[in-house]
Amino acid sequence: MTESKASAEGKLPRERVLRALNHQEPDRVPIILGGSAQKIAASTVHTLLEHYDLPETSLRRVFAQFRFEHVSEPLWQVLGADARHVYWQPEQRFSYELQERGEVYVDDWGLDYDFSIGGGDTSCVYRSAPLAAATVEELDTHAWPDPDADDRTVGMREAAQALFTEGRYAVYAYRHGGIFDYSSFLRGTERFMMDLVMNKPFAKRLVEKVAEVLVSFYERLVAAVGPYVDVIEIADDLGTQKGPMISPSTYDEFIKPCHKMLVAAIKRDFPQIKVMIHCDGGVRPLLPGLIDAGIDILNPVQVTAGGMEPAALKRDFGDALVFQGGLDTQNLLINATPEEVVEATKRLIDTLAPGGGYLFGPSHNLLADIPAENVIAMFETAQHYGRA
Fold first, then answer.
1. What's the CATH architecture for 13-92+145-191+210-385?
2. In this predicted model, what pLDDT tens digit does every residue of 217-268 receive, in sequence order?
3. CB neighbours (10 Å) of residue 317?
4. Three-state SS across the chain?
5. How far is Cα of residue 348 from the mean position of the Cα atoms in its chain?
């Protein structure tokens, strides 16, 4: 980052993040940990606590859409994280113990999935598609989730207000699921992709029904935390390793109107809130549509996917989008030496940070196969090299 453009402002983490979100250079590149696709595997969290001589008692569990994750405030401070997240509550019948036992769970969408456990970490796999045989008429009588059945925002207002009042960190509200994602899960990915071409009335009604439910969830979220948060996360995994899962025209026809409706609901009473979309893979061809839908921040910037070269993204979309993430978790962080991670971190910051509009983090979750020394190298480098 250039020395001349940095302001004396932006010394506090929240100010640092806000400057970057407004495409201004802060005193150093902001660092984001937690939330969508920037979580750390439980086993690695324990290793890092030991490395930094931090107490295990600092760990707390948070519910991240479909499973519990571990966070530690002292560890987040050591790693230089500039934002804090507030998280939804799980459905009342879901528990950490159920996850740890590796049991099958059916959520409020009627999706059942089972947990696999290995190396101290937990993942889950969806097992069914409850709308696989549904007709378009049956979508209107389907038992959709009731946002009022459980108050999923319990404690979020208090947590967000406390962070806002303290004023030190930027405040993010974690996401619910996505419109494209839930449509795919409910129908089955292969069948839903066929619907988008061969059964358009069904596909259109399905995404509309999913969007209606998600708008209701987010309206309750905004009512709870709207005055206190800087960023609200949404999600839709629209990319593959090679490119987008759907064409830009299909996105514009089916998904963009729903994204516009969701973003409008989030910003209706709090237009200052930035909306971040978690969107994996090679989604470059969809970025103009996402920008038109009102998206402010792209996460996690999967740089090894087709079309996601950082320099080209910054050149072509850096004036309209903030990029969050970007340090390769697929190859670099797994296989490189700490010294190579240091150099890659510097190159990424040099590419994306000038002029603001960049929040540093990994290109996806830091899983257990990433050596802890590489995690240490990336965050320590970002804290020191990322200064203007």
1. Alpha-Beta Barrel (3.20)
2. 999 999 999 999 999 999 999 999 999 999 999 999 999 999 999 999 999 9
3. 18
4. CCCCCCCCCCCCHHHHHHHHHCCCCCCECCECCCCCCCCECHHHHHHHHHHCCCCHHHEEEEECCCCEEEEEHHHHHHCCCCEEEECCCCCCCCCHHHHHHCCEEECCCCCEEEEEEECCEEEEEECCCCCCCCCCHHHHCCCCCCCCCCCCCCCHHHHHHHHHHHCCCEEEECCCCCHHHHHHHHHCHHHHHHHHHHCHHHHHHHHHHHHHHHHHHHHHHHHHHCCCCCEEEEECCCECCCCECCCHHHHHHHHHHHHHHHHHHHHCCCCCCEEEEECCCCCHHHHHHHHHCCCCEEECCCCCCCCCCHHHHHHHHCCCCEEEEEECCCCHHHHCCHHHHHHHHHHHHHHHCCCCCEEEEECCCECCCCCHHHHHHHHHHHHHHCEC
5. 19
What pLDDT digit, counting tens, does each position of 173-196 carry?
998 889 999 999 999 999 999 999
Closest CA to 147 of 63, 214, 222, 65: 214
> What one-letter code names the amino acid at 89?
Q
Residues 108, 65: contact at Cβ < 8 Å? no
Residues with Cβ < 8 Å from 378, sequence gap 6 or more? 327, 333, 341, 342, 345, 362
Among 5-14, 93-102, 130-139, which stretch is predicted with the lowest mean pLDDT?
5-14
Closest CA to 230 of 24, 34, 353, 85: 85
Pairing of strands 68-72, 59-63: antiparallel
Among candidate residues 81, 92, 91, the one with its CA nearest the CA of residue 40? 81
